[in-house]
Amino acid sequence: MELPGGPASADGRAVNEALLGALTAAAVKGCAACVDRLLDEVAGDPACVARLVDVSRLTALRLHCGEVPGFMTDDDDRSGPAAPELKRLVRAATAGEPLTEVCEQLTAAERRAAAGYALELLVGQLTLANTVGFDDGETLAEMCCAISALLVEWWFTTVPLAAREFTEIWHRWAFGHREAGLPGNGVHAVALVLGAVLHDQALQDHVPVEELGTLVFTRVLPALREPERVGEVLSAFAAPPDTDGITVPVKRFARSNPAFLAEMCSLARHTLTVHAENCPHGLREPNHACTLAHRAPALSGDVHVQVAASTPEEGRRVALPRIGYSEDEPIEGAPGGYGADHTWQINVDRILLKRFDADIARWNENISEDSSISEPNYQHETGLEALACPACGSRASFLAEGCWDDPLALHCRCGVTIMSPAGAPPEDLGRRILKRLILCEADPAYAARCLMPPLAQYQEREHSARDGSWYRGPDSEDVALVEAIDVNDDDLVQALAAALQPKLPERHGGRTLTLLLLQVMYALSAPAVRDSEDGRTLAEAVRTLVADLQEESARWAPTRQPLVDRLQAWRAEGGPQMWQDAWSRTLEMAGRHFKRYRVGDGRLSDGCAALTLAQYLLAREADTGGVGEITMNDIRGLLPPGGADDSDRNPAEVVRQWGARLQALGHDLDAADDPVARAWRHLRTDRATDTYGDGREPALTLGLKDLLGERSYYRIHF
To answer: In sequence order, what DSSP letters do the residues of 125-165 get, joined into one string?
Structure first.
């Protein structure tokens, strides 16, 4: 009679299947003498004892609806025939311990006793199963693990940033402890821990598998704050046998590494907390007892919409989306003239909010780490968008309702009420949105006043940045925006719309200036705001800001010039033929290496000018066939001994020597009409050596270091 399991144990130990088959057959036939003789042989083989105990345990699981009977594990349970030796081994198998090693720690007599009782139970269970059959329905343990996996996957789908952080955590454990053999992406590891505590709670609350939806899952949150207690529950949890590939390594590692178990408990606790916070049934019940049935609509299908109908009177409700959204604190208190209990009912066309997109952030990070992408297409991680109803997707026509200190209640045309939790703190997104809507309803000009502080803060940061040594002019995207705005247009809203090309109500990503001007445009598009004194003040402040940015943009315009255009302009100044030949050679090189570059901080353009001057100087001194015979190594020889990166010699001395050699060739270094002399005077000007330091160095040596230095990124050649 063959027992399941194969010729080797899970730990790779050889199992004598023939011996176990003969023993089981003898027991079934009732040959006591044969059983006694074969048990002596089995007791001498720990791997055989381990297999016999495990098969008996698994058979009991199938016969008892996925639960291990207490008489097989509990030393105080005298209701069955199991001996202490067998109970010890069953507990070890359930805990995921290496069962063969545990058997080796027993004496031969203890192994014989354990094997004898395991055989007796196995034969009895097989006889009973032959009479009544096995129950193939889903067990409580299977349901708890399956639901836990759905709970975790919903959290990661709803909160991509959480999924990203968890992936990093799991990789740290899995790759940092390869010997543990932790499997998969970690979702099922968290689900195993969560499933174990849910299963334990269901047993305590006497919730059968048919009524598992009634289980109040928030009751396990206190237990998840005690990793030691969870460790005991996890060890005793008889997980579904088909998950042994996950169960065994996770249980073993959790037992040997308390920090890992604590982190899994924390993740499981966060999972349940997010579900409880997003339960529509509890939006107005601070101490809401959230059940698994409440989360069923959110977990079913591909659309994670949390809509519920607690009672016909309350109608359908949905939690206000909060992930990634932000709302500034109101700059004013409750409007005067209204009682604290005054209930506002406000019709609002759309509600604009800022939202950070974790998916875009992940995309940006991925392409930043991909060295094969020469021109990364980064996207804006923060954008402005109109709030959408989670149920129907509509972004317009809402009715907001509530008192000043109330949580948000927003009615959509589809019949769903979007709510923020009643127990949310004052800084909660929903409370701040409602306060903004109330202030704008009481005085539309508030929409203009609330934009003045961020506008002033932006201008202050901009002016402060200009004083920094690292400042290299305004951002190119900001430049393109402000240059497209006609500040002289009487209709500022029209001027802003023409420049911004708004995508609202859909998401419009952008930098701080873009999002700020979008908010201004939207606020001033309302006549009640635009025609108010505050509206006119805001419009004037925006015109002043844009004019200032346009002036700053013009000041830094030369740095945005294409590098090759700058070099061509220098060449167009004329000069002797050899000077022109040197420029032609430099331009040919720059066209290959720097076609898409702009002048920026000037180092590259200065380096190219120095390269041209070096070719001219060496070709004139050599009096040979021209600049075509000058090599990069020849040019490096003009720099201090040790190469382009040598800093032992004063760079100013190098520039002085170049000037002396030019004078020896007949150039007047002060001549205004000599392009060669003008280039030398430009290159002797000191430039900042780095972004944040105070060091200075002539443009000639600084530029050549960028082009020819040993650590040069460009690796140029003629």
So the answer is: HHHHHHHH----SPPHHHHHHHHHHHHHHHHHHH-HHHHHH
Please check whether residues 499 and 618 belong to one and the same domain. no
pLDDT of residue 53: 92
Is 571 found in the same domain as 542?
no
The span from the CA of 198 to the CA of 219, in Å, is 9
Stated pTM of the model: 0.71
pLDDT at residue 596, rounded to an integer = 86
What is the C-alpha separation between 44 and 66, in angstroms, rounded?
Answer: 31
The whole-number pLDDT of residue 258 equals 95
Please answer whether residues 3 and 115 qualify as being in contact, where contact means their C-beta atoms are separated by less than 8 angstroms. Answer: no
- Residues contacting residue 613 through CB under 8 Å, at least 6 positions apart: 582, 658, 676, 679, 680, 683, 700
pLDDT for position 303: 46
CA pair distance 409, 424, nearest whole angstrom: 13
Q: What is the DSSP string of 473-485?
A: SS-HHHHHHHHT-
Mark whether 370 and 457 lie in a shared domain. Answer: no
Q: Residue 61 in contact with residue 69, Cβ under 8 Å? A: no
Query: Residue 433, class by beta-carbon neighbours within 10 Å (0-12 exposed, 13-18 middle, 19+ buried)?
Result: buried
DSSP H or E segment with residue 412? strand 409-412
> What pLDDT score was predicted for residue 537?
98
Domain tally, the chain:
5
The C-alpha angle 283, 286, 292, rounded to 5 degrees, equals 65
Q: Token pair 């740095």 is at which residue? A: 559
Q: Give the C-alpha separation, 274 to 166, whole Å.
A: 15
75 in a domain, yes or no?
yes
Compute φ and ψ for 181, nearest 5 degrees: 65, 35
DSSP 337: T
In our burial notation (b when 16+ CB lie closer than 10 A, e otherwise), range 514-525 reads: bbbbbbbbbbbe
pLDDT tens by residue, 208-262: 999 999 999 999 999 999 999 999 999 999 998 888 889 999 999 999 999 999 9
Please tell me whether residues 350 and 387 are part of one structural domain.
Answer: yes
In a domain, residue 57? The reply is yes
Task: Tell me the pLDDT of the chain averaged across its residues.
Answer: 88
The answer to whether 89 touches 102, Cβ cutoff 8 Å, is: yes
What is the β-pairing status of strands 344-348 and 316-319?
Answer: unpaired
pLDDT the model gives residue 314: 58
Instruction: Report the C-alpha gap between 209 and 436 in whole angstroms.
Output: 47
Q: Write the pLDDT tens digit of every residue in 579-634.
A: 999 999 999 999 998 888 888 888 899 999 999 999 999 999 887 778 888 888 88
183's CB contacts (< 8 A; 6+ apart) are 189, 245, 246, 249
Q: Parallel, antiparallel, or unpaired for β 398-402 and 409-412?
A: antiparallel
Q: Are strands 416-419 and 316-319 parallel, antiparallel or unpaired?
A: parallel
Range of the domain at 201: 140-277
Cβ proximity of 659 and 666 under 8 Å: no
Q: What is each CA distance from 171 to 174, 176, 205, 244, 331, in whole angstroms? A: 5, 8, 36, 21, 44
CB atoms within 10 A of CB 533: 10
% helix / strand / coil in the chain, to the nearest 5? 55, 5, 35
Strand, helix or coil for residue 687 = strand
Question: In this structure, what token pair is assigned to residue 449?
Answer: 């006043």
